[in-house]
């Protein structure tokens, strides 16, 4: 073969001949496969498969693949790749000398004569080889491909591609990637997906739809996918760093459900044979909360620790704490945590003033380092800068109270551990003393516990000489027994509440217990108002606070009387503030409690919390006078003025106030009568509850002053006894009696004007107009004409309301002229210590509604409840139910 390579141009001809043989052999072997593939591609490019349904496209692809494999296998089995000798033999056939094959021969007996002859023979063969050309395969191709498919199929493919133009890629993709799942019920798949943000964010769920753009949700959100499918799909959550596959689980409703957590930007897909749904989701990180001091802690005149703080968080703060550390022990010492109250549920941005009593803390009187610690719903924590201050200490004047406080502090500040006992049970059993180990525990106690035990023994030595209150002595003895039996510092610390209550009892008397109950009841009610508790729970805690307030007031009065201070007159709950503080009678204190009840009932939580704080601080600052003081009242509560009673008011102002109170009662009863008339028209029967008189408190008529022991029933004429048959007066009778009261009010005002005593300030013509409307309403009720009665009742109600508003404006103007800038300005009302009357509430922007406003709110609430009870219109009923949901 080396000789063949020496012949110029021969090797290329051999290669081309071999390639032609290869093409011919491939065509003979793979022509069925080529035709099959070309037909499928032409169908795809011309859009025949794209126009077909998913099932038809899937079947076409399956048939194509099913035919492709055997045809390819058949072609591979038939195909024999041509070799170089095959090409050489084909070229040799062009010459009888077979030059390419002969050139490889060698002489059998080379000699001088034969060598010359052989060289001549090789020259002849070489010349013949040079004349060889690549064979013509036309005849062979005509036999193999008589229809010229080798040219026709490429032309058809090119034409189909030109026809498809820019859609060629999509059509081929559809042909080779149909939804195979359609053959197994993919068209019945229904997918629902939603993302639920973490609960602490307060954000609503986000429902996902097909083809939706990027959705931004808080990090940590949970995605839930529910699918109705023939079998379980897969949920794929892919982030930049990881790819998570989540299998669906079957639900009781024969659906499939899967959940996953979104921690970073993700691509979420649901696959079942192929991708069924996908959503890009962006995750917003939850930043840690921040807290800072606005003002550092300082002590108030009432021994409370007061400071202003500011906090912020993107989704709201769950808890606020004060972290205290002793400065004399270093930054690594164990801290003490004090929980602080947040202004509402999970505030995002808040700046408040906190005033708390820390005098009971074990580190009271020591220098501390304090930091604010805020925690959000995700558990992230933020700290403020440290602030150094001295924790206020309770100032105790009684020697015994100071001694008890020293014992308590000694116990609480002891952090040492008890020494381990050496087989105490075995020794006790051998000695037959089952309680020997318990009685000897004090010997293993730390020094502070032992010192406190000895201090109790010293204080209780000869109690008959030093103890006036036997309960204090018994309490100290019990505390000593608790220390003797304690086996750890935690058990010893359980003496804290007992020792504190004993010290307060010695210092302040029995009122200390009532004060603790008052503070606990206040805290419970504040939490219910802040957290949006149910109406029943708020009502229960309100009643507990009202009872605690009355108990504390009674305890303080009893203590004052026992100490020789002036007893309140007529057994009313009254007292006097020290100095020139404002005073208020017991009826006004009850009015504040009633106002608190109205505010909680009508959902005015902010105003209720402010009034709650005012009442509590007023009671805590309560003082009684020595000897015969002028006036009676409770300090810290807004009255008519400083140091004045109703009798101290100018006569015109006092008469106008009484008239306004009487007119308000008339208006309230007229409204109740309107409601009863409307209820009777609907076939219901309403009226005053048994034992309760319409339009006011039990046993009190419109215009009757609190505390009167006798008085006629609402709407009852003088000298006339009320109905005693239990059924009560009819609507017409009640309406006539209201008209009589309005007539009497008009005549009383006219008589006062004639005597020159000022009168009530009401227009007599207006009262006569109201009376006539009430008379017409009564006549309509007697005739059974309910619609006409309601119209006249509403006219009377509107005029009574307008008249009451005019009188209230006149009364406000009189008081403003008399008091000047002090009227209505709580900043000018201070106690002898210079503190704002009504407490240290910082909610100056929260206005407490007056009685008329509260009554209007109650009327609206009652009307909503009444209409809710009428099931005539279901749509309106649902709307009213949403309105009443808070209440």
Features:
single chain; alpha+beta; Immunoglobulin-like; 7 domains; 18 strands; 13% strand
Secondary structure layout:
Elements: H1 2-6, H2 10-45, H3 48-51, H4 54-78, H5 84-92, H6 99-102, H7 112-130, H8 138-144, H9 149-164, H10 168-176, E1 190-196, E2 206-208, E3 215-218, E4 221-228, E5 234-238, E6 243-247, E7 249-250, E8 256-262, E9 266-272, E10 274-284, E11 290-299, E12 305-312, E13 317-326, E14 336-340, E15 349-356, E16 367-376, E17 381-383, E18 387-390, H11 399-412, H12 424-431, H13 436-439, H14 447-459, H15 463-466, H16 470-485, H17 489-493, H18 496-508, H19 511-531, H20 535-562, H21 586-601, H22 605-620, H23 651-681, H24 731-755, H25 764-783, H26 786-819, H27 851-868, H28 874-883
Parallel strand pairs: 3-10
Antiparallel strand pairs: 1-2, 1-4, 4-8, 5-6, 5-9, 7-8, 9-10, 11-12, 12-15, 13-14, 13-16, 16-17, 16-18
Within the largest sheet, what's the order of strands? 2-1-4-8-7
Proportion of residues in extended strands: 5-15%
Low-confidence stretches: 567-585, 625-644, 687-726, 824-846
Q: How is the quaternary structure best described? A: single chain
Average pLDDT over all residues = 77
Helix content: 40-55%
N- and C-termini, Cα separation = 109 Å
Number of domains: 7
Tell me the number of strands.
18
Question: Mind summarizing the main beta sheet?
Answer: 5 strands, antiparallel
């Amino acid at each position: 073969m080396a000789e063949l390579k020496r012949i110029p141009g021969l090797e290329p001809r051999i290669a081309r001949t071999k390639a032609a043989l290869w093409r011919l052999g491939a065509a003979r072997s793979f022509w069925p496969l080529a035709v099959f593939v070309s037909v499928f591609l032409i169908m795809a490019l011309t859009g025949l498969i794209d126009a077909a349904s998913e099932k038809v496209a899937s079947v076409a692809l399956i048939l194509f693949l099913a035919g492709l494999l055997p045809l390819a296998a058949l072609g591979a089995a038939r195909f024999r790749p041509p070799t170089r000798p095959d090409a050489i033999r084909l070229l040799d056939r062009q010459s009888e000398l077979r030059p390419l094959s002969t050139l490889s021969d060698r002489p059998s007996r080379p000699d001088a004569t034969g060598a010359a002859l052989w060289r001549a023979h090789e020259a002849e063969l070489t010349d013949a080889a040079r004349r060889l050309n690549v064979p013509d395969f036309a005849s062979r191709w005509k036999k193999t491909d008589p229809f010229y498919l080798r040219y026709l199929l490429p032309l058809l493919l090119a034409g189909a591609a030109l026809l498809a133009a820019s859609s060629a890629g999509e059509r081929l993709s559809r042909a080779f990637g149909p939804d195979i799942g359609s053959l197994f019920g993919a068209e019945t798949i229904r997918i629902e997906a939603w993302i639920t943000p973490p609960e602490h964010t307060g954000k609503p769920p986000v429902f996902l739809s097909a083809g939706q753009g990027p959705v931004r949700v808080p990090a940590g959100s949970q995605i839930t996918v529910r699918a109705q499918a023939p079998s379980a799909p897969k949920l794929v959550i892919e982030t930049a760093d990881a790819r998570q596959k989540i299998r669906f689980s079957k639900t009781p409703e024969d659906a499939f459900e899967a959940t996953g957590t979104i921690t970073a930007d993700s691509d979420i897909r649901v696959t079942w044979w192929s991708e069924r749904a996908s959503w890009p989701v962006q995750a917003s990180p939850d930043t840690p909360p921040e807290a800072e001091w606005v003002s550092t802690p300082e002590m108030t005149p009432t021994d409370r620790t007061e400071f202003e703080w500011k906090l912020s968080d993107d989704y709201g703060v769950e808890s606020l704490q004060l972290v205290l550390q002793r400065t004399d022990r270093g930054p690594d010492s164990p801290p003490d945590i004090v929980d602080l109250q947040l202004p509402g549920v999970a505030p995002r941005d808040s700046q408040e003033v906190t005033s708390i009593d820390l005098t009971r803390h074990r580190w009271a009187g020591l220098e501390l380092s304090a930091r604010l610690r805020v925690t959000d719903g995700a558990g992230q924590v933020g700290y403020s800068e440290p602030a150094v201050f001295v924790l206020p200490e309770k100032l105790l004047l009684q020697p015994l109270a100071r001694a008890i406080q020293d014992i308590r502090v000694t116990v609480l500040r002891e952090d040492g551990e008890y020494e381990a006992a050496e087989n105490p049970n075995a020794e006790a059993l051998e000695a037959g003393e089952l309680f020997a180990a318990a009685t000897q525990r004090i010997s293993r106690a730390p020094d502070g516990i032992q010192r406190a035990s000895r201090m109790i023994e010293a204080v209780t030595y000869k109690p008959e000489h030093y103890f006036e209150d036997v309960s204090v002595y018994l309490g100290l003895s019990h505390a000593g027994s608790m220390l003797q039996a304690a086996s750890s510092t935690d058990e010893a610390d359980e003496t804290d509440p007992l020792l504190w209550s004993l010290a307060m009892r010695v210092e302040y008397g029995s009122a200390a217990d009532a004060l603790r109950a008052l503070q606990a009841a206040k805290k419970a009610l504040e939490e219910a108002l802040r957290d949006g508790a149910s109406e029943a729970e708020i009502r229960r805690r309100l009643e507990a606070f009202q009872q605690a307030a009355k108990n504390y007031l009674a305890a303080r009065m009893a203590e004052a009387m026992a100490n020789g201070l002036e007893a309140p007159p007529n057994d009313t709950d009254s007292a006097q503030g020290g100095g020139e503080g404002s005073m208020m009678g017991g009826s006004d204190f009850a009015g504040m409690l009633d106002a608190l009840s109205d505010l909680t009932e009508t959902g005015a939580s902010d105003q209720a919390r402010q009034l709650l704080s005012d009442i509590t601080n007023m009671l805590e600052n309560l003082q009684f006078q020595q000897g015969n003081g002028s006036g009676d009242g409770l300090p810290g509560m807004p009255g008519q003025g400083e140091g004045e009673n109703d009798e101290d008011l100018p006569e015109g102002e006092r008469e106008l106030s009484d008239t306004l109170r009487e007119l308000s009662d008339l208006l309230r009863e007229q409204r109740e009568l309107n409601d009863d008339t409307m209820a009777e028209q609907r076939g219901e029967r309403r009226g005053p509850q048994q034992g309760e008189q319409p339009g006011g408190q039990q046993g009190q008529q419109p215009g009757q002053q609190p505390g009167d022991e006798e008085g006629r029933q609402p709407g009852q004429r003088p000298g006339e006894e009320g109905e005693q048959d239990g059924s009560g007066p009819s609507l017409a009778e009640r309406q006539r009696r209201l008209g009589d009261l309005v007539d009497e009010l008009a005549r009383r005002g006219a008589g006062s004007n004639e005597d020159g005593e000022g009168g009530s300030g009401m227009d007599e013509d207006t009262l006569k107009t109201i009376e006539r409307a009430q008379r017409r309403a009564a006549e309509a009720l007697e005739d059974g004409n309910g619609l006409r009665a309601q119209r006249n009742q509403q006219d009377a109600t509107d005029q009574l309301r307008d008249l009451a508003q005019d009188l209230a404006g006149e009364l406000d103007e009189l008081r403003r002229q008399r008091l000047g800038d002090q009227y209505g300005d709580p900043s000018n009302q201070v106690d002898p210590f210079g503190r704002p009357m009504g407490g240290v509430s910082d909610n100056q922007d929260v206005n407490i509604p007056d009685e008329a406003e509260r009554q209007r709110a109650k009327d609206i609430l009652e009307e909503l409840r009444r209409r809710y009870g009428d099931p005539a219109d279901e749509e309106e009923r649902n709307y009213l139910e949403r309105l009443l949901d808070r209440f």
